[in-house]
């Protein structure tokens, strides 16, 4: 006789807010995510979505781009004014400009319609993993890189010339892994596996985009970085600050 393990109760299950004006799409997503053990919350437009984030406190948001009145981009822009909840954009467009625009507004990932149930659950779990703080931290909670830059690992922020600048979860994880390997070149594939997940190993544009975000926040001159260095065709290297040597 096989005894099934106890199923998590409603409050223990991860909550996914699905924002889409198409009932059939919501039904498809709900059915597949509930089979994976998620609790699904619905919103049919941007206003409902913003209210649900405030009151239902979802663990991740699936946000459709093409909605009447308030589209997904505007909804995301307003959402990011008060919440850091992970957001996955649902889009029928595959143009890179639309994808980059969503990521620049604060999206954590995107899925292009049509998508499979397996891709859906995989992406949801991946953004949830990235929202979690890495289990280990570098040597100290506040790490002093030099007179200009420090990193506060407890609060996920950088301190640049005395100014505290908040990092988004993916930015934090990327910076964490670069600093953990300071002085060493970290290949694109390794960063993708560590920060985004193994299933993202071929999507090098994510690394390039988020390195640019970090440089905008920590570099004095992002076009000529001195902290996050590019090793062309290989990956990225954080300056070897512990030994006072940036290498060649």
Report on the structure:
There is one protein chain. The protein has 248 residues and is α/β, with parallel strands linked by helices. The protein has two domains: 15-131, Rossmann fold (3-Layer(aba) Sandwich), CATH 3.40.50; 142-243, Orthogonal Bundle (Arc Repressor Mutant, subunit A). The protein is 38% helix and 20% strand. It is built from eight helices and twelve strands. The strands form three sheets. The protein has a five-stranded parallel sheet with strand order 2-1-3-4-5, with helices on both faces. Strand 1, helix 1 and strand 2 form a beta-alpha-beta unit. Helix 6 packs across helix 7 (188-196). The radius of gyration is 19 Å and the shape is elongated.
- Assign the CATH topology of the largest domain: Rossmann fold
Specify the structural class: alpha/beta
Q: Could you report the average pLDDT, rounded to the nearest whole number?
A: 86
Instruction: Flag low-confidence runs.
Output: 1-6
Question: H/E series, N to C?
Answer: EHEHEHEHEHEEEEHEHHEE
- What is the count of DSSP helices, taking H or I runs of 4+ residues? 8
Strand tally: 12
Q: How does CATH name the architecture of the largest domain?
A: 3-Layer(aba) Sandwich
Strand arrangement, major sheet: 2-1-3-4-5
**CATH top level assignment of the largest domain:** Alpha Beta
CATH superfamily of the largest domain: Response regulator
Radius of gyration: 19 Å
Taking the sheet with the most strands, its summary is: 5 strands, parallel
Outline: elongated
Fraction in helix: 25-40%
Q: How many domains in all?
A: 2
**N→C terminal distance:** 64 Å
């Amino acid at each position: 006789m096989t005894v099934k393990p106890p199923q998590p109760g409603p409050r223990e299950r991860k909550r996914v807010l699905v924002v889409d004006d198409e009932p059939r799409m919501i039904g498809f997503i709900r059915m597949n995510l509930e089979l994976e053990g998620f609790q699904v919350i619905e919103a049919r437009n941007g206003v409902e979505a913003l209210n649900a984030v405030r009151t239902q406190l979802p663990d991740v948001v699936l946000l459709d781009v093409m909605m009447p009145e308030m589209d997904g981009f505007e909804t995301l822009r307003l959402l990011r004014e008060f919440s850091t909840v992970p957001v996955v954009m649902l889009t029928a467009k595959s143009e890179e400009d639309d994808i980059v625009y969503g990521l620049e507004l604060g999206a954590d990932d995107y899925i292009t319609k049509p998508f499979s149930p397996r891709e859906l659950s995989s992406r949801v779990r991946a953004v949830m993993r990235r929202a979690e703080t890495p289990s280990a931290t570098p040597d100290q909670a506040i790490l002093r890189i030099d007179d200009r830059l420090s990193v506060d690992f407890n609060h996920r922020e950088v301190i640049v010339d005395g100014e505290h600048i908040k990092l988004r979860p993916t930015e934090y994880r990327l910076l964490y892994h670069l600093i953990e390997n300071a002085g060493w070149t970290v290949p694109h594939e390794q960063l993708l596996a560590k920060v985004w997940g193994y299933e993202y190993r071929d999507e090098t544009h994510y690394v390039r985009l988020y390195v640019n975000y970090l440089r905008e926040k920590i570099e004095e001159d992002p076009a000529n970085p001195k902290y996050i260095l590019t090793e062309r065709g290989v990956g990225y290297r954080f300056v070897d600050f512990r030994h006072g040597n940036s290498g060649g």
